[in-house]
Amino acid sequence: MNKQLFLLSVIVFSLIYSCKYTDREQDKDTVEKTEIKLDYISPIPVHQDTLIYYRYDCCFAASLNVRYPAGEPEGTILMFLPYNSFIDSWCILTDFCEKALSQNYVLITPNFGNSIYAYENYDETDIQQKKYPTLKWILEILIIDIQNQFGLLKPNQNNFVAGLSMGGRGAVLTAYHLPRIFVGVASISGYFNIAEYKNDQKFIAALGNYEKNPDRWKNQCVFNDINNYKVPTYIAHGQSDRISQVIQSIRLYESLKKIHPDIKFTGHFPMTEIYGYGYWAKETDNILDFFDKIKLPLKYTNTSDSAFNVFINTVFVQK
């Protein structure tokens, strides 16, 4: 009996190991090149709540919290936090997570510290800024690892990405690069045309001086290729915001509506709202209602995945 249990344990371990450590170049190709039929949705494996830390560079650990609903998952929301936020601040300071879980969403909440979602690091990037994740790392390492470890954020699933403030910038850029992965986006109080922040030290630290690298700055903006941004998006921004520029959100919304009239873009720009969680908490229902309207039809019944039924409580992953 003990021998049979031992052999069974070896088989299960081998299965998990093979799922976790597949070739990353092959995964990258799958994310970027796979043609998707959007009328079919593959199942979301049921896991238990999991916390992972990714070692990034020498001095920063990017946390990733994955929460599962009590019912059968109907979609996944990747949540990007504001600049320099503490882990799970969106869940703690608003009821967004509670309501999203009650609507059967899986929630993925990474914390990227002071990342501005620059595509990559450059010779001019400040040494302190280099320790925070780049957009390229998020696209080519983190999301692929989520696909491999959890079976989430794969093509043909109801995947959404939402962000607050700098996270709103990250959400839009992530969907821009992976339009076949994400069904919809929500950006609240986001930063978009960063060329208008050319004296802001957090952007200078990541991209170098604007006058010496204007094309680099412009290429980090979705405005630079707005014709190819085609993911349904909810854009909201308080008009009394004195930290991030509401005019950029309005311009982005109006431009997208004009260029892509057949794609669902929704804007909400309340006159008296300011920057911060007091306002962001009020956008919870608007975001979830928008996602609900653009969900793909569910066409599967089995959400089990034997390769992912092992609970990983906390794991430290070297990248």
Task: Please provide a written account of the structure.
This protein is an alpha/beta fold. It has one domain (37-318): Alpha/Beta hydrolase fold, catalytic domain (Rossmann fold), CATH 3.40.50. The chain has eleven helices and nine strands. A nine-stranded mixed β-sheet has the order 8-7-6-5-3-4-2-1-9, sandwiched between helices. The chain is globular, with a radius of gyration of 20 Å. The protein starts with a helix and ends with a strand.
Quick description:
With 319 residues, this protein is of the alpha/beta class. Helices cover 34% and strands 16% of the residues.
From the structure above, extract its key features.
319 residues, alpha/beta, Rossmann fold, 34% helix, globular, disordered N terminus, disordered C terminus
Taken as a percent bin, the fraction of beta residues is 15-25%
Widest β-sheet, arrangement of strands = 8-7-6-5-3-4-2-1-9
Order of helices and strands: HHEEEHHEHEHEHHEHEHHE
Counting DSSP E segments of at least 2 residues, the number of strands comes to 9
**Fraction in helix:** 25-40%
CATH topology: Rossmann fold
Sequence stretches where pLDDT stays below 50 over 5 or more residues: 1-41, 300-319
Report Rg: 20 Å
Largest sheet: 9 strands, mixed
CATH superfamily: Alpha/Beta hydrolase fold, catalytic domain
